[in-house]
Amino acid sequence: MAELELKNINKDYKLENKTRFTALSDINVSFEKGELVSIIGESGSGKSTLMNIIGGLDSDYTGEIKIDGMDLKSFKEKQLDDYRKKKIGFVFQSFNLIPHLSILDNVTIALTLSNVKESVKNAKAIELLSKLGLKDHIKKKPTQLSGGQKQRVAIARALINDPDIILADEPTGALDSETTAQILEILKDIADNDNKLVIMVTHSEKVASISSRIVEISDGKIIKDEYKKDYVKNKPQEKLISENHEKAKEEKIEDKKPNKKKKEGHLSFLSALKLSFHNMWASKTKNILMAVGVSISLNAMILMLSLGSGLTGYINDTAQDYANPNFVTISKSGYDRDGNPLEENSNALIPRMFEPDEIDEIVHELNEICLVDNDFQVVTSGENQNLNYGFSTVTMGMGYISPVQNGEENNSEDISQQPSINPTANQEMILYTYTTPPYYTEENLLAGTMSGMNEIMLSSAAIDFLGLETPEDIENGDYYVTLSINMTYDNIPISIVKDVKVSAIIDVSIFSSMMVMYIDYDFLDACVIEAQERAQVLNPTGLKPSLLFIETNSEETTDLINNYINTYRKDLSGSVEEQLAAMFSEMMSTFSIALAVIAGISLVVALIMILVVLYMSVSERTREIGVLKSIGARKKDIKLIFSTESLLVGLLSGIVGIILSLVLGGILIAVFTALLGFAPIKMMWYYFLEALAISVVISVLAGLYPASKAAKLDPVESLRHE
């Protein structure tokens, strides 16, 4: 049976004007092992097309090609890949060596595609290169070799898988006469001593003269098929292809294992990673610049997340520093229980005060929900208060906001209360007035003592506004201001004017830069009763609270009550600190989302950049892809190589982004600390993992299309690509 048999092979090309050009017509020929065949003919005669069809690179033909009795046309894609990998060895005129791989790696690439062990493939390649006189050049790159040496490497690559057929396309076309003679002698030895079928496509008469058979093609038809009677085989010598003892031993051991079918090897992930790394290193400048570009987007994302987290955490921590976890603060929200805004008391400057029956209702509800989960009860007076048994008394409080303009109180009809502390003329301020919370202690003071009757405490901003002395002078001296409060209480206007002592400067957390005044609740209540009596109010009621404070027995009880209020009582809310903290947190959350969107846009830009660079890489490496397919690379192998390359790009970008974030983050922390005394940046470790994961994901996604395009490239067109 012939080694290779072609029956009625016809091949047409469709031209742009929809006409068809016949490249091969009724080709009938067969070849045997050990033949050295030259296929000759003018340019365009069809000889290269015939070689591509025999090599399994072009399947668009009619007729039959018999290989070991099987029709090549019937081969599935996997079988065709295996055919090129094991049965055929290509030697090209332009060598088609992969420039960024070493000579050794260029030769072993076919074994790499079969996932052969590193030690086995290297031993086999070194043995083959040594016989071809290239032992001292295995670590060099193709650009460091002469033309003859490059062609020897190409021959070694063609022989490494011990194929039955060698196809050489103008194997000496780029060589001088002396080197040509050496290469032809090697090809002749392969046919004569290794018993391979060697088919050479050539214009050269010198090449044809050493052949055992000449097949001439003209206009796509065989016009001559001549065996040379005077052909003399080379004397037997050591074969170029010898069995690798280690591999043979492994195969024998494998064959002895019962009921185990030997699995065909394919390109592994680690091998693809190695090939991708070689390519990236060859274009390191381009890849480093791309990684830096992507890393800038990742760095922006990390810093934005860190800034948002840091600011939010700072606001929450500051609010927590001035709130007691064992106290619940309750105020009216200005909404009904269904969450609809109330028309009355909608002005934020008017305090929303609790009536006694409303307080009783709240206490009743809180006791019901507390009995479900723990033994805690709330009472409205000091009677029966016993914290050892889980009882707590509701403490009353007041809080409101008043504008003071041009040194005078704003007497707008919409304002029911305007406290004033004789501000300097032609100045404006907003005064926040509160009764002292029950959880405030001396620790909250910057100077002085807690206020009592006829005393107030002021924030640092209020102290500065009034032009008072230093904290030490406040603590040691007697400083008085005039407190003026005009109120409409139960539809009856009342007025309070008192000379009060400034007993302390208080640290008011998130209100530090605001005008804040604290008054003892009992003192303010007494002032209201006195004013009501002066206004001849029947049955003076005293001060109605706008704040309720409940001391709990644990943080769990505090959370239980707060969760109930936030979920079921839309008409109630927490303390001003809690409300402001929630407002700032919501603002920061929105701010963080906005920053994340900006970072996301930059990541999309980075993705497009990676896609473009990888797409260009496919174009630049088109011939390399054709070479890989000619030695049996599957579509999956090509995809894997380019996908792992995009994976490496993602890893490199992520690592550079993390390093850049650490450097810039450290600089920003130092600058903020120097300017503000604190750094609103919180760099969490998982931000870096997220950035690395995102970098890898967008890189792999960006590489999908280029990898798919590379896998679909036609091998014949790829090999022709310049």
Name its key features.
722 residues, alpha/beta, Rossmann fold, Alpha-Beta Plaits, 4 domains, 8-stranded mixed sheet
What does this structure look like?
- With 722 residues, the chain is an alpha/beta fold.
- The protein has four domains: 4-256, Rossmann fold (3-Layer(aba) Sandwich), CATH 3.40.50.300; 269-314 and 586-720, no CATH class; 324-398 and 545-574, Alpha-Beta Plaits; 399-544, no CATH class.
- It contains 20 helices and 23 strands.
- The strands form four sheets. Strands 14, 15, 16, 17, 18, 19, 20 and 21 form an eight-stranded mixed β-sheet that branches. A six-stranded mixed β-sheet has the order 6-7-8-3-9-10.
- Helix 5 (147-159) packs parallel to helix 6 (177-192), helix 10 packs antiparallel against helix 16 and helix 16 (576-620) runs parallel beside helix 19 (685-712).
- The longest helix has 45 residues, at 576-620.
- The two termini are 40 Å apart.
Q: What is the makeup of the main sheet? A: 8 strands, mixed
CATH architecture of the largest domain: 3-Layer(aba) Sandwich
Q: Write the CATH fold name of the largest domain.
A: Rossmann fold
- Let me know the average pLDDT: 81
Number of helices: 20
